[in-house]
Amino acid sequence: MMIDCGERSATVRQEDGRLVARVRDGDIDALGVLYERYKSRVYRTAIAITHDERMAEDILQEVFLRVNRYADSFDQTQPFEPWIYRITVNLSYSWTNKAKRWVNIFQDALERLKAPSRRDPERVTESREESAILRRAIEGLPDSHRVVVILYYLEDLSVSEVAYALGVPEGTIKSRLYYAREKLRKAIADQEKGLLSEVVYDFT
Amino acid sequence: MTSRDDRETRSGRLDAMIRWTLRESVAGAAPPPTAWREICERAGRESARARGARWRDLRLACRSMVIWLVQTTMGPRTGFPYPGSAEYVQLQGRYGLCLLMYQQDLTMLLGQVL
Q: pLDDT digit string (tens) for B6-30?
C-alpha cells in the first residue's frame, strides 16, 4: 500500500530513506540529520500525549535509539515520517500507562482538593474561552481517538499516514476523526449552554 | 447561506480551533539541547554491547569448530568406543569438554557434555 503523504515532497522522502540506510550501516551522523529534522515533531507529539516534559524528553531519546536499533526493519518503500510517529505514539502510550497506574490515585486526590467550586468567577471567565473547553474535551476523548486528533491536527498527517502510524485501516481513522469532531462540537455546545444557564442563574 | 454552507463553515471553524488549541498547548515546547549528546552516548554503548556480543558469538563458533575438528581427527572413529587414552581425556579437558563417564568394559560412551 502506498501512503499519501500530502504535500511533503518526494525528495524529502527519498532523502529520509537514504539517511535510514546510512543509519543501518552504523552512521551516527545520518541519525543526527534525522534527529534535527524530526526532533521537534517527536517531542511535541510526546508532550501532547503525555503532558509531561521529562517523559517527553525520555521518549525523544528512546525514539531515536530505536530508529538506530531497528533501522534494518524499516520498509524503504514507505515514508519515514509515519514510521517515526508510530514509534513515538507507541512509546508515549506505553510509558503513560505505566506512569498512570502509580500517579492516578494521588492525582485524583490532589485534583479533588484543589478544584475550585463550579461557581468560582475565575473559572467561569476561563471557561468562556472556547479553546480551554476544547482542550479539556480533547483530554476527555478516548486514547485511541485523541491520538488520531493529535496526529491529524497537530502534526498535519494525512488520513493514510495516520492509519499507517497507528496500524489501523483508513476507514477506522476517518470514523474516529468523525466521532472526535462530533464529541468536541458537542462539548463546546454543552459548555455554552451551561454558561448561559449559569449567567441566567446569576441574574435571578 | 444554505444550511449546508453553514455546516461546512462551522466544521471549518471547529477544525481550525482544534488545530489552534493543540498547537497552543505545545507552543514553545522544544527538546533540551543535551538530548542529542545523550542519544549519542547511549547509541555508542549499545553498539559496543552489540559488537561484544558478536565477538562472543564468533569466539563460541570458533571454539565449537576446533572441538569438532579435534573430535573428528583425534576422537573415536566409529560409534562411541572408549578411547582408552589418558591423552585424549586431557585434550578434551583443555578445550572445555567435561568428561562424565566412560564404561570401560563395553565399548560404549555413556555420557559427555560440553
A: 555 566 888 888 898 888 888 888 8
Q: Which of B19, B31, B44 is closest, CB to CB, to A39? A: B31
Contact at CB, A65 and B36, closer than 8 angstroms: no
Which CATH number fits the domain that encloses residue A121?
Answer: 1.10.10.10
How close does chain A come to B59, measured CA to CA in Å? 23
Consecutive sets of 10 residues in chain A, 204 residues long: mean pLDDT of each?
61 87 90 93 92 90 93 86 92 79 58 52 51 86 91 91 91 94 87 63 53
Place of cell 488549541: B21
B30 at interface of A, judged by CB pairs closer than 8 A: yes
Structural domain boundaries enclosing A93: 7-112
Query: CA B86, CA B93: separation in Å to the nearest integer?
Result: 11
Q: Quick one: average pLDDT of B19-46?
A: 88
Q: What gap in Å lies between CA A82 and CA A195, rounded to an integer?
A: 40
**B13 sits in which H/E element:** helix B3-25
Check B21 against A149: CB less than 8 A apart: no
Q: Are residues A52 and A125 in the same domain?
A: no
Question: Is residue A35 less than 8 Å (CB to CB) from chain B?
Answer: yes
Among candidate residues B8, B61, B22, B93, the one with its CA nearest the CA of residue A45:
B22
ipTM over 0.90: no
Same domain, A200 and A147: yes
Q: Give the one of B18, B35, B42 whose C-beta lies nearest to A153's C-beta.
A: B18
Let me know if residue B58 belongs to a domain. yes
| Predicted TM-score of the model (pTM) | 0.66
